[in-house]
Amino acid sequence: MRIRATVAAVSGALVLSAFAVPAAQAVGNTAAATLNVTFSKVKVNSGKAVVVGATAKVAVPVTYTVTHAASLDVSADNFASGPLIYRGTDAASTTTKIISDDPGTCTAASTTVLNCKATIYIRPTSDLLNTDAATWKAGGLAITADGTKKTQGDLGNVPVRRLSKLTADATPEPVKKGKTITVTGKLSRANWETNKYAGYSTQPVKLQFRKKGASTYTTVKTIKTSSTGTLKTTVKATVDGYFRYSFAGTSTTPAVNATGDYVDVK
Where would one find the signal peptide in this protein (predicted)? Predict the structure, then answer.
């Protein structure tokens, strides 16, 4: 499953895609003929969960630091580095990893330290299965022109989540005071295997109300989605205001609020 790496070259020869082939004699998180560099201060997506929809490519910013020997030639002709995210116990040998398309852009902070930034692109149509909605790990990659390289893992956790959507529709509009209002809706989330959105079943969702002129919602009741992700409940009409559904999220799917639907009470 799903190694993807850049084919962009440095001086026509140096490519991060060399990391896509696990070394035959890998030990721990480093490969044979290991490059003597160390990655640190890796921050993926500013520390926030990465939320991926059904089809759209997601650009994930990464910053990191590389510490190297003062004698190492880190010019673009000889050295390239980049971040990755992966699942599994070993960054070098796992095949479930996504590598930055291009080498990182680095600035020398000293004779031995580079401060770098790069972008990892996640393409749900080719990179993800539904089971990949989990906590991934961050890693770093480095290579020199002579093929010496290093893969370093365990550089932080990266939650990857399936984008959620939620709707709400309150009827009738307008409605007489004391009459019944029916609020329907649907909770869905990205399916990375069909590249469509599918209902999220048996999930607790709050029905909330915001009185006209107020700034906050209050919870009226909690109901569960159906087997197809649909929602339906009733309340009595009291005053003008907005009804919405609110989902708190799960370990695989982020929280989401529906847009409030206004009801005019006569």
Answer: 1-20
